[in-house]
Write a structure and sequence with these properties.
The protein is built from eight helices and seven strands. It has 190 residues and is α/β, with parallel strands linked by helices. Strand 1, helix 4 and strand 2 form a beta-alpha-beta unit. Helix 6 runs parallel beside helix 7 and helix 7 crosses helix 8.
Length: 190
């Protein structure tokens, strides 16, 4: 899978639709929380278009993606408060972070979770990485009868509940053409 993303890495940051999506996601995030001083995990960061915007206020960002060339583009941006990692969030990643005491105030996943092999399991792993009262915010396409891509609100609610997250909200903050983006916000409360 990462090979197909790697093939798009060189042109990704000049794709107008990708740029617009990241800008709209960032603006909608601002309606939910402030990012100043937060520790952030950008799950499925790609070339870091959202990471760049978050880096202006966040204290520290860990940006992870399985596509080496995508992460390479992000690393070349030289953002001083961003630690870019080629990899996946799995049990090993979670265990290492928890053992080091690392927890995130905010986890963002912009158009990334529809590509994981096991969505509920990934949400459960991400929930374990959140600090108390930390937020998990995802943006993905809303699944429709004509398109199997993305999620239905009920799928998100079930995964968040199963992971022990309080589903704060689901909304449709923007559309891209005729496709609606579904935004979900979950909170970890210990």
């Amino acid at each position: 899978m990462s090979d197909s993303w790697d093939n798009m890495a060189a042109e990704w940051d000049s794709n107008e639709a990708v740029i617009a999506y990241s800008e709209k996601a960032f603006l909608s995030l601002g309606e939910v929380t402030k990012t100043k001083g937060l520790t952030v995990l950008d799950f499925g960061c790609g070339t870091g278009l959202l990471t760049e915007k978050l880096s202006l206020d966040a204290a520290l960002i860990t940006a992870i993606d399985p596509a080496p060339k995508m992460v390479g583009v992000l690393a070349q941006k030289g953002l001083s408060n961003v630690h870019a990692i080629v990899g996946v969030v799995d049990e090993v990643f979670v265990r290492e972070r928890r053992q080091s005491g690392e927890r995130f105030d905010l986890i963002v996943a912009s158009s990334a979770l529809a590509f994981v092999p096991d969505y509920p399991e990934t949400i459960a792993l991400l929930a374990m990485l959140l600090a108390n009262n930390g937020l998990l915010v995802q943006w993905d396409w809303e699944k429709s009868e004509s398109s199997g891509a993305g999620f239905m609100p009920s799928e998100i609610e079930e995964a968040y509940t199963h992971a022990g997250l309080n589903l704060v909200s689901t909304s449709h903050p923007f559309s891209m053409g005729d496709m609606r983006v579904l935004m979900a916000v979950g909170q970890r409360i210990d």
